[in-house]
Amino acid sequence: MTAKSSLLKVILLGDGGVGKSSLMNRYVTNKFDSHLFHTIGVEFLNKDLEVEGRPVTMQIWDTAGQERFRSLRTPFYRGSDCCLLTFSVDDSQSFVNLANWKKEFVYYADVKDPDGFPFVVLGNKLDVAERQVTAEEARRWCRENGDHPYYETSAKDATNVAAAFEEAARRVLAVDERAEHLMATDTVNLHRKSRSGATCC
Ligand SMILES: Nc1nc2c(ncn2[C@@H]2O[C@H](COP(=O)(O)OP(=O)(O)OP(=O)(O)O)[C@@H](O)[C@H]2O)c(=O)[nH]1
Ligand SMILES: [Mg+2]
Asked: How far is the CA of 135 from the centre of ligand 2 (A)?
């Protein structure tokens, strides 16, 4: 009997033009289009994969990064299992804005435990020569803002794209496993005889 596939909702956030749609398209269809239009609102695509032997259906939500579409995208944050905070290594403002994106997500997704929530940070457009953000700067931000995994990607030549999305899935499954473990150890077994034989009442 094949194991049931877990459905994971993964959302891409980040400034307009950093490459969110391109990353989703590269990962799901393995295509790259250098003349993509700005996303309006949100779109999603599904991708089936296996993570550590477990079947997973990843529902990837791509959002409009432009400020004017904030009210169109924020209602879709709720219920996300992982958030991919995306910037472009050739655009320092998109890197500076990561903190705002994280704050916006935590607020509208109503995340109860931001420190325990799986974020993955993507520095896209690695193929572009003129960088404005160094890998060290980006890694330091990730370390200091929640110890998030960091991937430098290129939707154009596919560098690290699958690796970044697979890490997102691993992080979600790890959170689920931790929660299941806590549930299992927290539940009191009312039928088990107490070891010492002592009775409480
Ligand atoms: N060189 C290079 N260009 C890229 C890469 N990823 C995206 N682009 C280009 O950057 C532009 C913006 O990419 P999009 O994927 O539309 O960006 P977005 O984050 O979805 O933008 P919004 O929909 O406005 O939020 C497009 O012209 C892409 O072809 C990349 O890895 N390398
Ligand atoms: Mg887009």
From this structure: 24
